[in-house]
Amino acid sequence: MSRIASIVALIIAGVVSYALWAHLGRPIDIVDVPRGHLQCLSYTPATDASSPLNAKDGLFSVPDGMIENDLKILSQYTDCIRTYSMLGDQGKTMKAAADAGIKVMVGIWIGADDERNELEINRALELAHQYPQAVRAIIVGNEVLLRREMTGERLARIIASVKARTDFPVTYADIYEFWRRNPVVGETVDLVTVHVLPYWDDPHPVSIDEVQAHSRRIIEQTQTLFPGKTVQIGEIGWPSAGRTRSGGSPTLVHQARFVREFAAQAESIGVPYNLIEAIDQPWKRMPEGTVGGYWGILDKDRVLKFPLTGPVSEWPNWKLAAGFTAAVSLLAFAWALLWRKPITAPRWIGLGLVAPAVGATLWALGAQLGLIVLNNWWGWVWISWLMVLAVIGGALLIYAVAGGRNVPKPAGFDGVVSAFRNRKFDGAQLIGAYHWAVMLPAVVLALSMALDGRHRDFLQLAFWLPAAAFLLLHLQPSTRERSDQPQPEEAWVAALLLIAGPFAIDQFINLEAVVWAATCVMLSVPWLGFAIREAKRIDLAFRGRTRGAIG
Fold this sequence. Notes:
This protein has helices spanning 2-24, 66-74, 92-100, 114-130, 152-163, 176-181, 183-188, 211-225, 252-269, 285-288, 318-338, 345-372, 377-402, 413-422, 427-452, 460-475, 488-503, 511-524, 528-550; strands at 41-42, 80-82, 103-108, 135-142, 170-175, 191-196, 230-236, 273-275. It has 19 helices and 8 strands. An 8-stranded parallel beta sheet has the order 1-2-3-4-5-6-7-8. Helix 3 (92-100) links the parallel strand 2 and strand 3 (103-108). Helix 8 (211-225) packs parallel to helix 9, helix 12 packs antiparallel against helix 13 and helix 14 crosses helix 15 (427-452). 54% of the residues lie in helices and 7% in strands. The protein is α/β, with parallel strands linked by helices. The protein has 3 domains: 1-25 and 315-376, no CATH class; 29-293, Glycosidases (TIM Barrel, Alpha-Beta Barrel), CATH 3.20.20; 405-551, no CATH class.
């Protein structure tokens, strides 16, 4: 029976490996972009090493020929770009656009520094008048009011001064709310340029199914607010990677769907639009989290991320993922056979389900961490640490499911510290050290997500495997904690995970947040006995002090 069960389980693992990824990688039909061409795209010439993030006085350099090559590529998909500054190498965009036959919405970066503002204005007007054939409009300031860097009245005076120096249409770009609060700006500009970025809406973004109607409402509100003005969309788009916010899930298919559905209905909306953005900007991951780096239609290597016509797949290389998952499953079965001890039929079947789950998790985690990693050594250390934790957790889970009855009870905090001091570990201390290697980053992340999670990624893929392994091993009598042992360190970590994890849930439709919260709770369960005893100890101590004070 055991042999038959092992064969059945292996077949189950193979079928699950294939079926799971075939489903995740299936082509999704989406409406085509009309003529396969987009109206306008935001463009910032930048590299990993040189970007606005490390600019000095607005200046940073880019490789020779990069801008010209970028615009040559972009001309295949659009005949317009929007820029944000003309200082330094960014100013090369004007000549390159003129040579490529591309129109430019010329950006002038405005902020609190009047001297810098004057430099920006002078340089932008100089280039605009030098290449008039490439100019569509001049945008004086980008979300200056949103950033609270100046009042509407002061901004209106700056806009008026620019209008006095040029015949090109002059506008300002911001979200609807700050146009509404500052009507003086609307009275000054020639065009009203509104940003529609549903993913960043507060407090709760809508889902991809509702987002087109939501976007149309914002546009209609802007048109109603300024009935005598021409309204255009300065930024609209959807990210392809990053954390889910309420109903807003950033995936490749969702980005493709948003862009293509909006482009298809743009003419009926009746306003020109500019998509954010042309090319992924990895440097934005620092100020905005992972999601900030993945708004581009093209990736950082200038490759189109999804076709503008035809079906789109979230995992176009899903067959590789299925092969990896099946290989992990095969390794798990081979490992189980090396134990040379009987495995019951239910445990074989459990292994047939868990092994592909481990393989799929590791593949998906690797893909996620590849998007998260920053261009520095500690970023690589961090993602390597998370991957190692997941691999060990997957091995422990496989062992727990297939018959891990001899795993020692993990040593407590004092035992782990003692092992590090003595540089000698027994089995219990090794398991205890791994517990802490998982729990410490988990509790830090849980607190961070609960207190300020707007720009942080959910990392349940890195932690659910060890969480499930800890829970299963805890339920086995040989590894269950003994209730007579006080371990305050474990107690506090368990309490913090139990409390902080669910606070990351912004709405219950956010499945990513729900799974993260469930993972935190699952991590806390093996140590909850310690937390309960610690709570009782604190309660007794408090009561004792209270009685002493009364006495």
